[in-house]
Amino acid sequence: MFSEDIYINTNFKNKFDSSDISTDSSVPEKKNTYQKICHKFSKVLLTSLIVYFLLLTILFSGSLITLLKKYAQLLEEKTVMKELYYTELECTKWHPLSEDKVWSCCPKDWKPFGSHCYFPSIDSVASWNESEENCSSMGAHLLVIHSQEEQDFITRILDTGAGYFIGLQDPGHGQWRWVDGTPYNESATFWHEGEPNNPKEQCVTINYRKPVWGWNDIPCSDKQQSVCQAKKVYL
Ligand code: MMA
Ligand code: CA
């Protein structure tokens, strides 16, 4: 029975090879080709499905990462907004004739001078890095001094018994740099007599040495008071 079957199959194969098979007698052969096609098709289908799901996974992961990033960004913005929202501003009318941006404002308890606002720390000491971080958490930076007037203004409101970090640092070789990126101008510096005096002292404080206020380089890890500075807000 089995061998007969094979014979018949072979017979048909020879007879109808590569022709349009449409008679009933071609069913076994048709089934065979159909199975092959089916097999091939399912292979292609499976590969396509795998590729499709792989692409879907990549796309999904990509979108998820983007979404998470966006979410983190929004959270950060929200905390900044909250801080800004709860900061009371004190404003003065500074341009009586102009219609727009007539108010110049500083956060409550900050001292206005020129185009900036100043905030000395009150009895709290920290390293230079911590002090700068504290200022930047308030949208400010450590004090940058560019003129005698600014130096005089700030020293009038500081305590003669304390030292205050300012935004001046030496990354090495006495290359003094202001924290806000403005150029260090040798002719507008207020170093104490004999300072800076130590290449291992790479951060700067402003302090009082009778009878003058001036700058002294000290180790950045020393704990000192500090002064924050921010740009005025014009409304
Ligand atoms: C001295 C003087 C400064 C130095 C400090 C370090 C008190 O001043 O030598 O230049 O920075 O000591 O504490
Ligand atoms: Ca020094």
Architecture blueprint of SSEs:
Elements (H helix, E strand, L loop, with lengths): L1 H15 L10 H60 L2 E5 L9 E5 L3 E3 L2 E5 L7 H9 L4 E2 L5 H9 L7 E6 L7 E2 L24 E7 L2 E7 L6 E7 L1 E2 L1
The structure holds methyl alpha-D-mannopyranoside (MMA) and calcium ion.
Supply the key terms.
single chain, three-stranded antiparallel beta sheet, 40% helix, binds calcium ion, binds methyl alpha-D-mannopyranoside, 11 strands, Mannose-Binding Protein A, Chain A, 235 residues, disordered N terminus, alpha+beta, 2 domains, elongated, eight-stranded mixed beta sheet
Describe the protein in words.
The protein has 235 residues and is α+β, with helices and mostly antiparallel strands. The relative contact order is 0.13. The longest helix is centred in the first third of the chain and has 60 residues, at 27-86. The model is unreliable at 1-26 (pLDDT under 50). 40% of the residues lie in helices and 22% in strands. The chain folds into 2 domains: 1-82; 116-230, Mannose-Binding Protein A, subunit A (Mannose-Binding Protein A, Chain A). It has 4 helices and 11 strands. The chain binds methyl alpha-D-mannopyranoside (MMA) and calcium ion (CA). Calcium ion is lined by residues 195-198, 201, 216-218.
Provide the CATH superfamily of the largest domain: Mannose-Binding Protein A, subunit A
What ligand molecules are bound, each kind once? methyl alpha-D-mannopyranoside, calcium ion
User: What is the mean predicted local confidence, pLDDT?
Assistant: 86
Helix content: 25-40%
Question: Which consecutive residue ranges, at least 5 long each, have pLDDT under 50?
Answer: 1-26
If classified by CATH, what would the architecture of the largest domain be? Answer: Roll
**Termini Cα gap:** 101 Å
Rg from C-alpha positions?
39 Å
CATH class of the largest domain: Alpha Beta
Largest sheet: 8 strands, mixed
The CATH topology label of the largest domain is Mannose-Binding Protein A, Chain A
SSE series: HHEEEEHEHEEEEEE
Q: Report the portion of residues in β strands.
A: 15-25%
The structural class is: alpha+beta
Number of helices: 4
Shape: elongated
The total number of structural domains is 2
Query: How many DSSP-defined strands?
Result: 11
